[in-house]
């Protein structure tokens, strides 16, 4: 079986930086118990390995308030501003592993909301990255996720708006949403904050999925950027399967296939990608 592996598959810069940060803290072997605020990345294998090494996950401000003499590592997706305030108030050790591209959005939102802009975030309001971005606006921002919501949008033409995007949002969908809103004639500053790695990964997945009989997308079910890859590939390749590890390969249909494409989300470790590729080559 011929396989085509996407060059952009696997850990992006921000994810690798976050994971390395946690393992570095473990290596320091300090007396503090280590926690991550939320799973450091959306990958069960990585989170499980960290738990075996003594790193636990806390999920909300209430749990954070109960910690003493602990190290708290901010997840790659970022957190609301109030989480930093609690950590500092309780004299906990703060280690910030927020992706720099996400951190930049926090700075944009905080700056422009202070200057009187109403904030619009394009993304999934339930995704941790968007929840974190929301917490840097002086006023509750508006969150939209698709063209129909953009089309139904009614804003105050006497106010000015600043629009940003979740870093892992589908690039073409973002462009479509921007075009819809700009036609309405609002005073709106649009900042495309989709990271380059996401855009490149999506473009490569689209290209490969048009060339193969089967397309495999590897990543955690909670990973937004992996779901976007699956959506893109599914439009071009009927036999697109979404798996988390090599154990899920049975869900893929390789009948009469001669060429398989493989891509992976930004939170998928290289060893999982290699295992899947080797298995496809040798077993099918």
Structure description:
The strands form three sheets. The protein has a four-stranded parallel beta sheet, with helices on both faces. A four-stranded parallel beta sheet has the order 3-2-4-5, sandwiched between helices. It is α/β, with parallel strands linked by helices. The chain is built from eleven helices and twelve strands. The protein is flat. The longest helix has 16 residues, at 13-28. It is 42% helix and 19% strand. Helix 8 links the parallel strand 8 (160-165) and strand 9 (187-190). Helix 5 runs parallel beside helix 6.
Question: Brief description of this entry?
Answer:
This protein is an alpha/beta fold. The chain is 42% helix and 19% strand.
């Amino acid at each position: 079986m011929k396989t085509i592996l996407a060059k952009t598959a696997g850990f992006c810069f921000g994810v690798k930086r976050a994971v390395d940060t946690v393992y570095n803290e473990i290596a320091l072997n300090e007396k503090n118990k280590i926690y991550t605020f939320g799973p450091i990345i959306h990958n069960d294998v990585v989170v499980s390995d960290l738990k075996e090494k003594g790193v636990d996950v806390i999920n909300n401000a209430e749990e954070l308030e109960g910690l003493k003499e602990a190290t708290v590592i901010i997840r790659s997706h970022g957190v609301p501003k109030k989480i930093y305030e609690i950590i500092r108030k309780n004299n906990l050790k703060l280690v910030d592993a927020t992706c720099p591209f996400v951190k930049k959005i926090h700075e944009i939102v905080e700056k422009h909301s202070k200057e009187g802009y109403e904030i619009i975030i394009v993304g999934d309001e339930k995704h941790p990255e968007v929840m974190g971005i929301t917490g840097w606006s002086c006023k509750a921002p508006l969150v939209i996720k698709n063209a129909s919501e953009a089309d139904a949008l009614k804003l105050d033409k006497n106010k000015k708006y600043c629009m940003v995007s979740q870093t892992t949002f589908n690039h073409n969908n973002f462009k479509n949403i921007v075009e819809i809103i700009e036609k309405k004639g609002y005073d709106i500053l649009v900042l495309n904050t989709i990271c380059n790695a996401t855009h490149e990964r999506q473009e490569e997945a689209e290209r490969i999925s048009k060339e193969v009989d089967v397309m495999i997308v590897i990543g955690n079910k909670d990973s937004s950027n992996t779901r976007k890859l699956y959506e893109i590939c599914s439009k071009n390749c009927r036999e697109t399967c979404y798996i988390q590890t090599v154990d899920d390969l049975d869900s893929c249909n390789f009948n009469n296939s001669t060429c398989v494409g493989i891509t992976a989300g930004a939170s998928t470790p290289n060893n999982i990608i290699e295992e899947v590729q080797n298995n496809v080559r040798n077993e099918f």
